[in-house]
C-alpha cells in the first residue's frame, strides 16, 4: 500500500466514523453548536475536542491505556446528555466549557480507540494512520458544523425565537436520545 493510499484510507475511516456511522458523535457536535452558533467559537470548541480525543486515541492505540467499553460507552452518552441539557439551562458559553469539552474529548477518544482497534493501523505507519484518521474525524465534525450553520444559524440565529423554536427543542430531543443510550449502555 502506498503512502497516498494509507492517507486516503485512514482519512475516509475517520470521516465515515463520524458521517454516517457516528450518530453519537454527530449529536455531540450538534450539542456544542446549539449553545452558541458563532462558527469561530464552535470550531475552537471542536478543535479542543479533537485534540483531547487524539490524546486518548493515541494512548489506547499504542497500548498505554486499555479502555473498557463497559464504562466508556455510557460516559460518551452522558457527555451528550450533559451538553444538550447545558444548552437548555444556559444562555451562553461558560468559562469552563473548553475544559469540559476537553474532558469529554478524552472519553470519546477511548471510544474511537475501540472502533479503530477493529480496523487496525497500516503496518509500519502507526502515526500516519492515527494522524489521518483524526484529520478525517475533524473533517467530519467541520462538515456537521457547516451544515448546521448553513441550515439553521445563518438564517435564524438572530431571530428572537431561535432559542425557543430551534435550540431548546433540538437540545431536548438530543437529551432524550442520550438519556436512552445512557440507560441502555449501563443496564443492557
Structure characterization notes:
81% of the residues lie in helices and 0% in strands. The protein has 188 residues and is mostly helical. α2 packs parallel to α4 (69-89). The chain is globular, with a radius of gyration of 17 Å. The N and C termini lie far apart (41 Å). The model has no long low-confidence stretch (mean pLDDT 91).
Order of helices and strands: HHHHHHH
Radius of gyration from the alpha-carbon trace, in angstroms: 17 Å
Shape assignment: globular
Q: How much of the residues is beta strand, in percent? A: under 5%
- Strand tally: 0
Percentage of residues in helical conformation: over 70%
Low-confidence stretches: none
Mean pLDDT level: 91
Task: Give the CA-CA distance, first to last residue.
Answer: 41 Å
SS class = mainly alpha
Largest β-sheet summary? none
Helix tally? Answer: 7
Task: Give a quick precis of the structure.
This protein is 81% helix and 0% strand.
Features:
single chain; 81% helix
Write the layout of secondary structure elements.
Elements: H1 3-18, H2 23-35, H3 39-61, H4 69-89, H5 97-119, H6 126-156, H7 162-187
Helix pairs in contact: 1-6, 2-4, 2-6, 2-7, 3-5, 3-6, 4-5, 4-7
Amino acid at each position: 500500500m502506498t503512502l497516498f493510499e494509507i492517507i486516503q484510507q485512514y482519512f475516509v475511516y475517520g470521516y465515515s466514523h463520524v458521517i454516517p456511522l457516528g450518530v453519537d458523535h454527530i449529536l455531540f457536535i450538534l450539542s456544542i453548536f446549539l449553545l452558541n452558533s458563532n462558527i469561530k467559537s464552535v470550531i475552537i470548541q471542536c478543535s479542543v475536542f479533537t485534540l483531547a480525543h487524539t490524546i486518548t486515541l493515541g494512548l489506547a492505540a499504542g497500548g498505554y491505556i486499555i479502555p473498557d467499553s463497559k464504562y466508556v460507552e455510557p460516559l460518551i452518552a452522558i457527555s451528550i446528555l450533559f451538553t444538550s441539557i447545558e444548552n437548555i439551562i444556559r444562555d451562553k458559553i461558560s468559562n469552563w466549557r473548553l475544559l469540559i469539552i476537553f474532558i469529554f474529548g478524552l472519553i470519546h477518544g477511548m471510544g474511537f480507540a475501540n472502533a479503530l482497534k477493529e480496523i487496525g493501523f497500516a503496518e509500519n505507519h502507526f502515526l500516519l494512520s492515527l494522524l489521518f484518521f483524526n484529520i478525517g474525524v475533524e473533517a467530519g465534525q467541520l462538515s456537521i458544523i457547516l451544515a448546521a450553520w448553513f441550515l439553521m444559524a445563518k438564517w435564524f440565529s438572530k431571530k428572537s425565537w431561535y432559542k425557543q423554536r430551534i435550540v431548546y427543542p433540538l437540545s431536548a430531543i438530543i437529551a432524550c436520545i442520550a438519556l436512552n443510550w445512557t440507560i441502555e449502555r449501563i443496564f443492557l
